[in-house]
Amino acid sequence: MKIKTKSVVILLLLLSTSIGISTIISFVPSTIEIKPKSEPELIFWCGSSQLPDDPEILEVCKKYNIGFMPTIRSNMVGVNEYIDLYKNITANSINLYFCIGGDTEFFGNIDNANEFPIIYSKIRDWFINESLLSNPHIKSFCIDAEPSKEFSKHMDKENILKSIEYGSKNYPIKEDIEIATKAMNEFKDLVRNDEKECGMIRAAQLLDSSDNDDDLSLFSRNIYNLDVDWDYTITMLYRTDQLQDDETQIEPSKFYIKSLSILFGTMAEGTKVTNSELNFYQNVALEQTPGDTEAKNQYIFIGSFDREFKDTQYIKEKLYKKDLDICRHFKEKKVFFYDLKGFISHYGWEGLEELGRHNQKKDVWYLRFYHFHSITFLLFYCGLIFIDLIVFFENDLI
What we know:
Number of strands: 13
Shape: globular
Radius of gyration: 23 Å
Strand order of the largest sheet: 2-3-4-5-6-7-11-12
Oligomer: single chain
Helix content: 40-55%
Order of helices and strands: HEEHEHEHEHHHEHEEHEEHEHHEHHEH
Largest sheet: 8 strands, parallel, barrel
Strand content: 15-25%
Structural class: alpha/beta
Distance between the termini: 54 Å
Number of helices: 15
């Protein structure tokens, strides 16, 4: 009995010592060497009417390998203003990566997936008639995948249980998923038949494939994980965010805002927040794995440069350059920026040249962080995997 007691005491001492040492180490600052290794193409999301036509600006874009991702919808087909802009851009050897919007709503989801093959067919006929589709600087067509407006309307941040109840009741049935999958594959095949790449813009990975049912994605009627072998995905890893969608929502508590700073290193400025460099680094690192999709290439969207963030440190100190360096550290071949209008409002057109010059620099710097912030990131994703493993939404598929 004495031997057992002594063993237990020793075990407890070792355990408490290990926990103590781990806790101390977690609060010790550390660094990661950021060494830019690539010089990626820089691509700005924009409305088609926002594309530049000034010869000097176009020359800067050509010099620094800056392209654009203009949005395009079926109601724009036949409008000369847009086709003239596209022709002018491509005539200056600048690449275009189109993002197609739906008819009922812009973002692609389970409920409007069937619209995209039809919309692309209209666009391709227009481009063919204008001798534009075969232009080598028309690089790709993609969709921006988001939950439907109807789903988002019923999501209540202040009543999680009510939101879960709505999502569960409206979980897509097997037929819905099959129709959406067929439509997305038809869209992809049409684009590929024209010798262009086809892709999808998406939010950060939820590691939804941990149990092979993709139910977290389908819960929001999203198309992230449908069986489509995209040529590429672009993950939105915006470091700027807001805690209130509008003034009608209750302002988050000081405790909540403080906890974001302590647990994740998030910088709060009023109701605007900037996620940490470490968080961005870890998410970009996560994107280097195959993840939830079967895409051949995975790219990053950085920002956001929306005007509402003009007073944040992210915008004022041009921290997007650090984001770009981290992408280059991982040898990204293309980096996307959201969006051109916001970027120009903060930095002017001369900001493009400054960005282009920075993209050519190879300066090494060190990302400083505390280990416990890395641990909370790991615990967050472990939590997502745990939820995915124990929660089942797909009752209608059985």
